[in-house]
Design a protein that fits this description.
The chain has 450 residues and is of the alpha/beta class. It contains 18 helices and 13 strands. The N and C termini lie far apart (66 Å). It binds pyridoxal-5'-phosphate.
Length: 450
């Protein structure tokens, strides 16, 4: 030990945190919880009985499907260690699921199981060399991972006039700067935060651009099964099998985010050496997903009528609520809104109010979120950095999941609405709080304009 520094001085020193960790933002689930807690406290200080309209956190509102609950009970005694890439029986079941639902031909050897798609996406960014391309707006998860890995990345700003979809010609021009050097791009379909779904033709054109520009794709298809008109969904694993890492999991369509289980189909052109690299890094970082969870998941990947019914009912409820809410938001003067076709989000463009917002001391898109949740509006949503937006781009993601999912599920099953008028009645009965949230948003717009 150095003579100049005493043990007491060393004990008194602060812990030093690595620069790359300091550079990343708090993930949105934590950031939103902290923001809401702060506003709750401030409002309590004013004697306000704080309640808020919860349009921020994107968690499926439904119950864990009963076959999964039962299977987990049965597999509790599977306490042994397993394989980094996942147990063979589960990889086989995942391969079968991908064939049945998406038409993807993937040998189980190309499938890796991980603790949620988030970890798998992190693994891909870590393993694949070259820079990353992140379309904006996007889900917040990607950019902190890239920053943590100190990976080079480029933001591809999506065009609102093209429904925030990647345009092949735009991507081609954008890729010229890379001169054929390998890059990896995220395509999230259905898209969080806009809810838009790509057609097969659109994906084929994008795949062609990727081929000629040496762009690999992380096809984040975690919302695939929730596509409202399921026939509209095409997997990138079908149109660009040689270059896509297709990720999916239990979190959204089977409402089991807490189970932490996802899968990745490696690109067809992955060599044995590439897939070994994947296993090696998986084993180094997370070892593997808990063995009982892996065994339980087999039952909800294998053909199962109860799960098929669950998919059908939950996607219909998402459709009914998302269609009605986005239409109602769109009626508010000054707001432009996407229409969701899958998932449980839509995107609101507030830029028409930009001058009023600046005048009202809302200087950027991060501040937009704070203004909306301020007393008395109490409207929580995700804005700014959390959607990878430029500070001057006033946009927000709306998650429409603030209702009792189990009750809505049972009500739908007992008496499914069969036309638009009945759909609206269904929303009024099952999701009244979100409708009240729209009234609060209208008052906020009036306030901003006043
Ligand atoms: C677009 C998107 N990708 C990935 C994830 C992470 O999913 P998982 O729970 O499988 O890690 C989420 C969760 O919010 C998401 O919205």
């Amino acid at each position: 030990m150095s003579e100049e520094i005493t043990p007491n001085e060393l004990t008194a020193r602060k812990i030093e945190i690595e620069q790359h960790v300091q550079a990343i933002k708090m993930p949105d689930n934590l950031a939103i919880a902290l923001m809401v807690a702060k506003h709750r406290k401030n409002c309590n200080d004013e004697g306000c009985p704080f309640d808020y309209y919860a349009f921020a956190f994107g968690q499926s509102p439904f119950h864990v499907p009963p076959p999964l609950v039962k299977a987990l009970g049965k597999s509790a005694e599977k306490g042994h260690y397993s394989d980094a890439e996942g147990i063979p029986q589960l990889r086989e079941a995942v391969a079968g699921f991908n064939k049945r639902w998406f038409g993807i031909d993937a040998d189980p050897d190309r499938i890796v199981i991980g603790p949620g798609t988030k970890d798998l996406i992190h693994l891909i960014f870590d393993i694949v060399s070259g820079g990353a391309i992140l379309p904006s707006p996007s889900w917040i998860g990607y950019s902190p991972q890239i920053k943590l890995l100190e990976k080079h990345f480029h933001i591809l700003h999506l065009n609102p006039d093209n429904d925030y979809k990647i345009e092949p010609s735009q991507l081609h021009d954008f890729a010229k700067q890379f001169s054929g050097e390998q890059h990896v791009m995220v395509i999230n379909n259905p898209h969080n935060p806009t809810g838009v779904v790509y057609s097969r033709g659109e994906l084929e054109e994008i795949a062609d651009v990727c081929r000629v520009n040496n762009i690999l794709v992380i096809a984040d298809e975690i919302y695939a099964i929730t596509t409202y008109n399921f026939d509209d969904f095409t997997s990138m694993g079908v149109v660009y099998p040689e270059g896509s890492f297709v990720t999916n999991g239990l979190s959204k369509d089977r409402s089991s985010g807490g189970y932490r289980l996802g899968s990745c189909i490696l690109p067809e052109k992955c060599s044995k050496k590439d897939s070994d690299a994947f296993k090696k890094v998986a084993a180094t970082i997370y070892t593997y997903v808990s063995t009982p969870t892996q065994f339980a998941a087999i039952d909800v990947y294998n053909p199962n009528d109860e799960i098929d019914e669950y998919f059908e009912i939950t996607r219909n409820i998402h459709r009914i609520i998302g269609t009605h809410l986005s239409a109602e938001f769109g009626k508010i003067d000054g707001l432009k809104v996407t229409t969701p076709h899958g998932g449980f989000y839509f995107f609101v463009d507030f830029n028409e109010l930009k001058d009023d917002l600046k005048r009202k001391d809302v200087p950027d898109s991060n501040a937009l979120g704070h203004s909306l949740i301020d007393h008395p509006f109490h409207f929580a949503c995700v804005t700014g950095d959390a959607c990878l937006l430029d500070p001057d781009d006033y946009g927000a993601r709306i998650a429409f999941v603030d209702y009792n999912g189990k009750q809505a599920y049972d009500n739908y099953k007992a008496d499914p609405p069969s036309n638009e008028a009945e759909d609206i009645e269904f929303v009024k009965k099952n999701a009244p709080k979100m409708l009240n949230g729209i009234e609060s948003l209208k008052k906020w717009v009036e306030f901003i304009r006043s």
